[in-house]
């Protein structure tokens, strides 16, 4: 595994991949929403965006997404890529300007996985 990583980094046009994260805590310090991503080259790769059920529908996900996208723009990112499963947040991302680039049907068996992109 290390050899392929070494090969990729030696030949890829980008030499830096930086983590990016944001979270919201309640009064007790418990994490109630969070997002994690990576930036490299022109891209933001959004790995996770999660909002606790107790506060869903209160614009918290929109705030987190906006915070992550803004931070990525400051790093020079021009595009975002994410994936979401059929029972997750595709309508949420679509509402925020993401377009389905590709759908992997039959994932992992009868569901599907949406690969979505957005110009930042």
Automatic annotation (TrEMBL):
Keyword presence, Acyltransferase: yes
Source organism, top-level taxon: Bacteria
Gene3D superfamilies: 3.40.630.30
InterPro entries per record: Acyl_CoA_acyltransferase, Bact_Acetyltransf, GNAT_dom
Protein name in UniProt: GNAT family N-acetyltransferase
Keyword Acyltransferase: yes
Domain N-acetyltransferase, residue spans: 1-120
Keywords in alphabetical order: Acyltransferase, Transferase
């Amino acid at each position: 595994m290390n050899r392929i990583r070494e090969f990729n980094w030696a030949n890829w046009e980008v030499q830096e991949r930086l983590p990016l994260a944001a979270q919201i805590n309640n009064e007790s310090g418990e994490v109630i929403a969070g997002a994690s991503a990576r930036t490299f080259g022109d891209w933001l790769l959004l790995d996770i965006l999660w909002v606790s059920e107790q506060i869903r529908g209160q614009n918290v996900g929109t705030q987190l997404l906006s915070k992550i996208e803004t931070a990525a723009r400051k790093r020079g990112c021009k595009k975002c890529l994410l994936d979401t499963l059929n029972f997750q947040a595709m309508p949420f991302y679509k509402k925020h300007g993401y377009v389905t680039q590709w759908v992997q049907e039959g994932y992992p068996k009868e569901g599907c996985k949406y690969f979505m992109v957005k110009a930042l």
